[in-house]
């Protein structure tokens, strides 16, 4: 029942999410409610869930339920983080579509249905790849000259994934080939599947389009295209690879060597890429790409021994990397920049985000004895020659290097932009402090004429990018204002930074004042309550700019009236207000909660260890094919005699009634249901 | 004796060829609609009426998605690199190979489905390597139709759930194509001349850039290029693609 509810909720949420207006409140409501409902349903999926559609059964399993819950939960986490940062348009519907398709793919006992549903899942990428509104000619940017190439690359990636999965479906369904050696089909299937996962996951040397994803796409797109989809395809591929294990030959060895080479290159170069790049989005993309190499290792290993750690790793991978994407969104929102060089001292301002990053590091790497560490080590040991065992340590060291770089940058002395940003510490009441205002470069709107004059006065002594310190009186929420201004600047810069000239302090004062007055006019109506007033202050960084001139107070009626109100509130009310208005704290706590989930999974908790041992029904289907296949004999065998007998027969003779496989014991059927892989039994490969 | 499966298989191949050789998105959508709708009839035994209806509705929805993406502008592709005769010859040759070859014996499905599947797969491979997203997307959809035919020919009749998943896959692939081609035209130089001429030159701040780009592209230096009917059908749209002088992104760097 829970499985049916999950699929219905995903399908309905996907359609409803596309029907409602993008970026509107209803779209957010549909996405969050849909993901929350799907998350709840996924938690209830177990081995007892079964749906029969025609002659195909969808059977739930503990692993499928945990994987879907993990994926849906991380999608919900990102959407909640998006409420406080930048809303990811269409990410919710796309996630619902992806996990709905994966639910069918991971629970179908028919390999054809499972792999075709996996192919269907691979087609949802363009939903987030193309940002709504980007197809309007006027809003496109000249700064993306390679946009056509990226669209084409995405189309080819979809084609490759779909073709590979359908080829794998043909191989697993095992038609009655006339050739005695049908290993070629399996070789092609494994090759296509491996390349498809490598391209979809951005493995080296296909990493170019993957690491440039964030530009011009929906925020947090990396989670869908680089984490959820490759992980889902990886589960299917690892399950199928156990079947391909029986195929040998030079061609298969060459394919395996190719996959090993790609995986090793990705493990090392992915970490190096994360180490040398300065944009946080690129660092995260390379980090995801590096860890996705373990899926290729599991595919190359082609054994059940590798499938179990791979399943555990995929669970942790989904949770940790989605948490990392959320972490980047939170950090970029808090400090208004996503360049590592401009984030010096971030850890001092946002220690909770620091804890979250350490948690992601622990969940991704672990330590000896920890489940995730053993899983990574097992995959490297099983998939690579023994001489390459050092790669495990090398990958860990390189990962520690780029995570450590972020942390070291965080504990350094804060730069001005970071110092100006709002931290996680709750503040309230009137206080005066010296806060740098990056005049012009930030594009912070100035509230009053006096503020503009201040800017004009510092113009001769500061460059467009040099911060100038002025005294700010911050009311209510402390450093809300610069932080919000940085956030607004970031959103604008992505869309139009290349087309619009940067404002400078040399700009006419009248223009700045006019623009600010226009903005204030638009915000006047919402500045009636303390909450909205403070939000208005957040939109206008200089709203509480200290000045002796009455003009300033007159120009900011909402702010001037709100600050004394906030100071008169009781302690409890002030705490509530501080909590409510400190978006940085809210977002950081949500991110930290998500990373805690990853850490729990990395320890094998929440049922991850046990669920990883069971796998999905496709495993049973794949394993059943070479050995325990109910013969599709030309003789009309009575239907009830095909299934294993529930009662042991008295006779011990092979082939006795009740023991179709010749055993006196009840047959240990690989799956309790009929598996539609009943092709004639043949010898696979050489 | 010619059966319904054989006729359906030929129609499916014709639809695929039409989709892959057409330069206009409407022609592509019409070809895909024919191929997706008729493909279930090529299998033997034919699916249930409900499954056929499901596939037909899915095909209509998929074609509608493609048309919707191309409705705002006349989205066009480069067309076939081989040309229509070349594609027809290639498809016919692959159809004959599929008709006479017997990779699976005994064949659980129909021979016509196998021939049509191989034929569609053969003509869908090349466009995947091209640089036109519309053609690449069309090739992906054609490839899916080909795989569905081959699976039904080699493995036997598919289950209702499998039909449902095939339908969803066709819709998903066509929808993805529609999304990506809708974002393809993103610079003034990529806009069809008909669209440029219809808009006032001063209406957009990018108008000057558009005229400059048109000039660089061989257009008139002081005004948008005049609309001239091209071809026998009197089409007024300008074909976007490398053949007709469209500046590729790399050329503009």
The geometry of chain A reads as globular
Report mean pLDDT of chain B, rounded to a whole number.
75
Average pLDDT confidence of chain A is 70
Succession of helices and strands of chain B: HHHHHHHHHH
End-to-end C-alpha gap of chain B: 60 Å
Spans where pLDDT lies below 50 across 5 or more residues of chain B: 185-205, 219-225, 234-253
Based on secondary structure, the structural category of chain B is mainly alpha
- Unreliable spans of chain A are 134-143, 429-517, 519-566, 622-686
Labels describing this entry:
heterodimer; A: 686 residues; mainly alpha; two-stranded antiparallel sheet; 29 helices; 62% helix; 3% strand; B: 253 residues; 2 domains; 10 helices; globular; disordered C terminus
SSE map:
The complex is a heterodimer of chains A (686) and B (253).
Chain A: H1 2-19, H2 25-43, E1 50-53, E2 56-59, H3 62-84, H4 91-107, H5 111-121, H6 126-129, H7 147-173, H8 183-201, H9 207-211, H10 221-244, H11 250-276, H12 280-301, H13 304-335, H14 346-349, H15 351-365, H16 371-383, H17 390-411, H18 416-420, E3 431-437, H19 449-458, E4 468-474, H20 480-496, H21 509-523, H22 530-539, H23 550-555, H24 557-568, H25 571-581, H26 583-602, H27 608-614, H28 617-624, H29 639-642
Antiparallel strand pairs in A: 1-2, 3-4
Helix pairs in contact in A: 1-2, 1-4, 2-3, 2-4, 3-4, 3-13, 3-26, 3-27, 4-5, 4-10, 5-7, 5-10, 7-8, 8-10, 8-11, 8-12, 10-12, 10-13, 10-28, 11-12, 11-17, 12-13, 12-16, 13-15, 13-16, 13-20, 13-26, 13-27, 15-17, 15-26, 19-21, 20-22, 22-24
Chain B: H1 4-21, H2 25-38, H3 49-71, H4 83-100, H5 111-128, H6 133-154, H7 160-182, H8 193-198, H9 207-216, H10 249-252
Helix pairs in contact in B: 1-2, 1-4, 1-5, 2-3, 2-6, 3-7, 4-5, 5-6, 6-7
């Amino acid at each position: 029942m829970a499985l049916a509810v999950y699929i219905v909720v995903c399908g309905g949420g996907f359609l409803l999410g596309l029907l409602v207006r993008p970026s509107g409140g209803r779209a957010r409501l549909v996405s969050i409610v849909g993901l929350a409902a799907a998350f709840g349903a996924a938690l209830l999926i177990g081995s007892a869930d079964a749906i029969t559609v025609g002659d195909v059964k969808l059977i739930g399993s503990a692993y499928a339920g945990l994987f879907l819950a993990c994926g849906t939960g991380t999608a919900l986490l990102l959407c909640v983080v998006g409420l406080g940062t930048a809303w990811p348009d269409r990410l919710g519907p796309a996630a619902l579509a992806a996990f709905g398709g994966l639910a069918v793919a991971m629970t179908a006992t028919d390999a054809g249905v499972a792999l075709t549903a996996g192919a269907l899942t691979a087609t949802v990428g363009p939903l987030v790849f193309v940002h709504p509104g980007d197809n309007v000619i006027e809003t496109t940017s000249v700064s993306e000259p390679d946009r056509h190439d990226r669209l084409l690359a995405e189309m080819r990636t979809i084609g490759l994934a779909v073709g590979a999965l359908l080829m794998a479906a043909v191989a697993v369904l095992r038609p009655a080939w006339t050739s005695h050696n049908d290993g070629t089909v399996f070789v092609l299937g494994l090759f296509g599947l491996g390349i498809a996962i490598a391209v979809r996951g951005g493995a080296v040397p296909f990493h170019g389009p993957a690491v440039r994803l964030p530009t011009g796409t929906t925020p947090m797109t990396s989670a869908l295209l680089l984490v959820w989809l490759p992980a889902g395809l990886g589960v299917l591929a690892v399950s199928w690879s156990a079947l391909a294990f029986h195929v040998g030959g030079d061609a298969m060895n060459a394919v395996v060597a190719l996959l090993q080479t790609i995986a090793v290159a990705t493990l090392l170069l992915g970490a190096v890429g994360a180490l040398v790049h300065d944009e946080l989005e690129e660092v995260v993309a390379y980090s995801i790409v590096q860890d996705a190499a373990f899926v290729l290792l599991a595919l190359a290993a082609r054994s059940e021994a590798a499938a179990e750690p791979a399943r555990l790793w995929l669970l942790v991978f989904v949770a940790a990397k989605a948490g990392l994407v959320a972490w980047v969104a939170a950090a970029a929102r808090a400090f208004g920049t996503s360049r590592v060089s401009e984030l010096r001292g971030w850890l001092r301002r946002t220690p909770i985000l620091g804890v979250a990053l350490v948690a992601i590091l622990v969940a991704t790497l672990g330590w000896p004895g920890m489940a995730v560490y053993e899983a990574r080590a097992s995959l490297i040991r099983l998939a690579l020659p023994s001489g390459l065992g050092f790669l495990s340590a090398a990958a860990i060291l390189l990962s520690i290097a780029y995570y450590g770089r972020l942390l070291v940058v965080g504990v350094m002395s804060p730069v001005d932009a970071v110092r100006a940003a709002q931290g996680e510490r709750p503040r309230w009441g009137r206080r005066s402090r010296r806060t740098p205002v990056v005049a012009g470069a930030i594009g912070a709107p100035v509230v009053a004429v006096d503020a503009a004059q201040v800017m004009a006065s510092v113009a001769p002594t500061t460059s467009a990018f040099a911060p100038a310190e002025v005294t700010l009186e911050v009311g209510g929420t402390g450093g809300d204002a610069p932080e919000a201004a940085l956030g607004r600047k970031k959103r604008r810069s992505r869309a139009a930074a290349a087309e619009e000239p940067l404002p400078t302090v040399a700009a006419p004062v009248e223009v700045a004042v006019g623009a600010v007055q226009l903005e204030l006019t638009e915000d006047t109506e919402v500045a009636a309550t303390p909450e909205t007033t403070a939000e208005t202050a957040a939109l206008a960084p200089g709203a509480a700019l200290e000045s002796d001139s009455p003009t300033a107070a007159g120009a900011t009626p909402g702010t001037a009236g709100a600050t004394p109100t906030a100071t008169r509130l009781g302690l409890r009310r002030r705490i509530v207000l501080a909590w409510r208005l400190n978006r940085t704290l809210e977002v950081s706590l949500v991110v930290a909660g998500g990373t805690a989930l990853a850490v729990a999974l990395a320890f094998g908790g929440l049922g991850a260890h046990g669920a990883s041992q069971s796998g999905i029904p496709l495993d049973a289907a794949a394993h059943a094919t070479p050995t325990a296949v109910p013969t599709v004999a030309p003789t009309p065998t009575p239907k009830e005699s095909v299934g294993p007998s529930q009662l042991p027969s008295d006779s011990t003779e092979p082939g006795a009634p009740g023991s179709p496989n010749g055993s006196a014991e009840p047959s240990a059927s690989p799956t309790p249901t009929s598996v539609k892989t009943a092709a004639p039994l043949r010898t696979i490969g050489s | 004796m010619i059966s319904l499966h054989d006729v359906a298989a030929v129609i499916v191949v014709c639809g695929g060829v039409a989709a892959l050789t057409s330069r206009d998105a409407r022609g592509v959508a019409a070809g895909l609609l024919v191929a997706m709708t008729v493909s279930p009839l090529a299998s033997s035994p034919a699916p249930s009426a409900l499954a056929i209806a499901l596939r037909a509705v899915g095909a209509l929805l998929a074609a509608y998605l493609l048309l919707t993406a191309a409705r705002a502008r006349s989205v066009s592709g480069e067309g076939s690199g081989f040309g229509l005769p070349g594609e027809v010859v290639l498809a016919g040759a692959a159809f004959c190979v599929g008709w006479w070859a017997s990779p699976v014996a005994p064949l659980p499905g129909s021979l016509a489905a196998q021939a049509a599947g191989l034929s569609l797969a053969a003509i869908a491979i090349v466009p995947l390597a091209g640089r036109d997203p519309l053609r690449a997307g069309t090739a992906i959809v054609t490839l899916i139709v080909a795989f569905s035919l081959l699976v039904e020919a080699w493995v036997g009749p598919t289950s209702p759930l499998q039909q449902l998943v095939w339908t969803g896959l066709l819709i998903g692939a066509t929808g993805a194509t529609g999304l990506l081609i809708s974002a393809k035209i993103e610079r003034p130089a990529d806009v069809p001349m008909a669209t440029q001429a219809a808009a006032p030159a001063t209406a957009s701040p990018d108008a000057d850039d558009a005229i400059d780009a048109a000039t660089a592209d061989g257009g008139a230096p002081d005004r948008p290029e005049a609309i001239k009917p091209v071809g026998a059908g009197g089409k007024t749209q300008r074909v976007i693609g490398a053949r007709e002088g469209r500046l590729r992104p790399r050329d503009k760097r």
